[in-house]
Amino acid sequence: GENVEQHPSTLSVQEGDSAVIKCTYSDSASNYFPWYKQELGKRPQLIIDIRSNVGEKKDQRIAVTLNKTAKHFSLHITETQPEDSAVYFCAASRGRDDKIIFGKGTRLHILP
Amino acid sequence: DVKVTQSSRYLVKRTGEKVFLECVQDMDHENMFWYRQDPGLGLRLIYFSYDVKMKEKGDIPEGYSVSREKKERFSLILESASTNQTSMYLCASSLSGPSADTQYFGPGTRLTVL
Q1: By the 8 A CB rule, do A75 and A65 touch?
Q2: Distance CA A105, CA B50 (A)
Q3: Rounded average pLDDT over B22-43
């Protein structure tokens, strides 16, 4: 069945450095790739998404890249800040009322 | 602003009890989802619904059922709760359309089965 692998499971970076989280997916029909952030005790919230017709998307300090040939996509956070500490989930979907398959999550720690 | 609410933040039940978890969204979303979240396992889909009275099994439907009698409400039912159903349960909703869209999550219900 469809599968989304996410690495690493835990990531610690110094404040101000960059963080990269990588995901691979198995279903070549997937065309929608969202990223969710879940702060401690809070609900997951969408932070950025990318569709298969583009290779990169950026929103301030956050960027996502997609390589459809290799079936992998990545989240890049630059100039990390303490409020970036959270669990991040990648996901993939074929779209049109289809379910979204989530990765297992990455716990990001921003070190002072 | 989308609002997804869940009936309880914390719930403690005994083994064998029937448990109802309610989710309500106020944005007229067609799609609704139930997930459980466990450490190291991420978000796993239990059931989803893309219309009233419609339901589809997710990845882990065993031991659960759902009900969608009204568009805004999606209920998760544990017919006979067991200790391995102790978990955080998250509801979500999204718009229907030609492509997938943002899922909006509720605050979650932490269920403990004793």
Answers
A1: no
A2: 25
A3: 93
